[in-house]
Automatic annotation (TrEMBL):
SMART domains associated with the record: HTH_ARSR (SM00418)
Alphabetical list of InterPro entries matching this protein: ArsR-like_HTH, HTH_ArsR_DNA-bd_dom, WH-like_DNA-bd_sf, WH_DNA-bd_sf
Pfam families given in the database record: HTH_20 (PF12840)
Organism: Rhodanobacter umsongensis
Taxonomic lineage of the native organism: Bacteria, Pseudomonadati, Pseudomonadota, Gammaproteobacteria, Lysobacterales
Protein name stated in the entry: ArsR/SmtB family transcription factor
Domain of life according to the entry: Bacteria
Length: 132
């Protein structure tokens, strides 16, 4: 593999990890998840969101900024009103990451279930042997 290909692959992985980190950090807060749920129904001003979540404008602006950085929300200022709407970015990469890890853990739990069943069967057989 050439050095430029390695650099490109490394840059892609760093970008991918940074994007996952940014998205999951944005989604880690209950208020930000609530804002996204609110915006599914309709666009809203930062003032409306602040009132809905009973917080200061400054606090809501910070939450919206985090969501914007993750590409989950866009804002548009018209006059003195800043309106928020869902971003165009979909969560396909994040969903794929979650699915890969779900499959991994599912396989591990299936293997554990098999081991437990085997051990129970062996324990039962050993107990029957001892009674004889």
């Amino acid at each position: 593999m050439q050095i430029t290909q390695v650099r490109s692959t490394v840059n892609h992985m760093v970008h991918y990890q940074t994007r996952l980190d940014t998205t999951f950090a944005a989604l880690s807060d209950v208020t930000r998840r609530g804002v996204l749920e609110q915006l599914v129904g309709s666009d809203a001003s930062i003032t409306d969101l602040a009132q809905k979540f009973r917080m200061t404008l400054t606090g809501m602006k910070k939450h919206v900024s985090v969501l914007e950085q993750a590409g989950l929300v866009t804002t548009e200022k018209v006059g003195r009103v800043r309106t928020c709407k869902l971003g165009l970015r979909r969560l396909e990469e994040e969903a794929a990451w979650i699915e890969r890890h779900r499959q991994l853990w599912s396989a591990r739990f299936d293997a554990l279930d098999e081991l437990v069943a085997h051990l129970k069967c062996k324990e039962k057989t050993d107990a029957q042997s001892k009674r004889r």
